[in-house]
From TrEMBL:
<dbReference type="Pfam" id="PF00379">
    <property type="entry name" value="Chitin_bind_4"/>
</dbReference>
<dbReference type="InterPro" id="IPR050468">
    <property type="entry name" value="Cuticle_Struct_Prot"/>
</dbReference>
<dbReference type="InterPro" id="IPR000618">
    <property type="entry name" value="Insect_cuticle"/>
</dbReference>
<dbReference type="GO" id="GO:0062129">
    <property type="term" value="C:chitin-based extracellular matrix"/>
</dbReference>
<dbReference type="GO" id="GO:0008010">
    <property type="term" value="F:structural constituent of chitin-based larval cuticle"/>
</dbReference>
<feature type="signal peptide">
    <location>
        <begin position="1"/>
        <end position="16"/>
    </location>
</feature>
<keyword id="KW-0193">Cuticle</keyword>
<keyword id="KW-0732">Signal</keyword>
<protein>
    <submittedName>
        <fullName>Larval cuticle protein 65Ab1-like</fullName>
    </submittedName>
</protein>
């Protein structure tokens, strides 16, 4: 259920832009213990994710999602990409344009 909510939210962000982008690719595969999805639009937006349940059937069952999303800045033409992991340790994004905390 959480996967569906996240996917719908990301999908809505991708298609709600005012520039009339068209979906050029939309694939998804959902199985009981793993899933994947891939969305690409005509304006260069891309969302890819794969998830899996780990420790199935135990009290420590958790979803682990690896993914990325990219978009092209309409004004500069620069492409931005965020790669992420979302697991029991939270959401962990990485991207060349994201600030990084200094090493203590």
């Amino acid at each position: 259920m959480k996967f569906l909510i996240v996917f719908v939210a990301l999908f809505a962000m991708a298609v709600a832009r005012p520039n009339e982008a068209q979906i050029v690719r939309l694939d998804s595969e959902v199985e009981p213990e793993k899933w994947s999805s891939n969305l690409e639009t005509s304006d260069g937006t891309s969302i890819v994710q794969e998830g899996v349940l780990k420790n199935v059937g135990t009290e420590h069952e958790a979803a682990v999602v690896h993914g990325s999303f990219s978009w092209v800045d309409e004004k500069t033409g620069e492409k931005f990409t965020i790669n992420y992991v979302a697991d029991e340790n939270g959401y962990q994004p990485q991207g060349a344009h994201l600030p990084v905390a200094p090493v203590a």
